[in-house]
Amino acid sequence: VLWAQRSSNVDAEKNFIYLTISVPDVPRENLKLDLKPTGLTFEGHSDTLKKTYHVELEFYAEIDPEASKVNHTARDVEMKLRKKELSESYWPRLLKDTKKAHFLKTDFDKWVDEDEQNEAAEDDFANFGGMGE
């Protein structure tokens, strides 16, 4: 699971979490994603790799599932999760629990330092268009 974030205290569109769950060869019909304000549950099965993936995450703070977007590809499930509370500062971590999760890594391809986020290239998720689940 990879993640990065942006924050804004004035523009909800710029106040989100990028979350990518890497699950190769999991077709849409074999995955179940339950997105809630406080977390998510993901389960998927790859027939070709004969593997079942499962992860449950409890977020540091609330998100807005209605305003969030999901994009499923052959390699992963990408999400752009809208943070519920507008805030200038980043979440200190993704999860509520302070214990380090071995499967959770920073997505350095999408990461931008807090003080440089306004200069960041807008939306790496151009392919999200009208995607949703």
From TrEMBL:
GO terms for cellular component: cytosol; nucleus. One of its GO terms (biological process) is protein folding. It comes from the Eukaryota. It holds the Pfam family CS. Residues 1-95 form the CS domain. InterPro entries: CS_dom, HSP20-like_chaperone, p23-like. GO terms for molecular function: Hsp90 protein binding; protein-folding chaperone binding. Belongs to the p23/wos2 family. This is HSP20-like chaperone. It comes from Parathielavia appendiculata.
